[in-house]
Write a structure and sequence with these properties.
alpha/beta; 4-stranded antiparallel sheet; about 25% strand; about 280 residues; Rossmann fold
Amino acid sequence: MTQFSPTAASQASRPMRDSALRPEREPQNTDDPIIRVTGLEKTYNTARGALTLFRGLDLEIETGAMIAIVGQSGAGKSTLLHILGALDAPTAGTVICASTDVATLTPRQAAAFRNREIGYVWQFHYLLPEFTALENVAMPLLARDRAKSGVSGDRSSSLGWKREALAIAANWLHEVGLEDRGSHRPGELSGGEQQRVALARALVNSPRVLLADEPTGDLDEITAGRVFDLVERLHVTHGLTSILVTHNLDLAARCTRALRLESGRLTPLALGAKG
């Protein structure tokens, strides 16, 4: 990885946000649901026979909503997120996410879709330990533009997009309050700081949809609240549509809607959620 100054990157990053590294998208009618799931079925073949998590599951999520999904372990919450984010394919049904029928994508198309439209945060940060925080955040940009331009190419051009990607990554570290941690590796960061780096990495490509699978589940109560505050702020500031799996009912109550996944069906959950 080319050495790059996080401070210089942060100073240079603001004009980059509308650069060529921003994904090109078709405009979407904001009156239409950004996610529409119809007749979803997911069945796994196991040693004990077929295991069906969903059958006839329907879901619509409006653009800009912040949705919490709760339920017992094993109910299929993570699997549902994986299907919405094109990490797993449904057995049957229609899944439209960010104007894309994700069930019809080839593996290559699914990877491009995830990189362009989906920000994903897991319970565990999954940062690459040998890279700095700045480099970890820049990875999705570097991966997309390497795939776009090809492995072979002009070296000066390659260095140029690396520099631009790192500048954008530095801006995102600033947004999550870690502009002074860009040169630190994950092992030098606290658990909360690592999750904030993971959040910056998830959003560095300016996705439309944020999928968060227990993003505060590995944190203490105070740190979890601070990370959720950050998620909530970024959700509003960047016009995201966010779907969060959580066991924390207090955090779920702060979302636009809360849904319980049980026996393969989603039902509204009254937690004093926002209107």
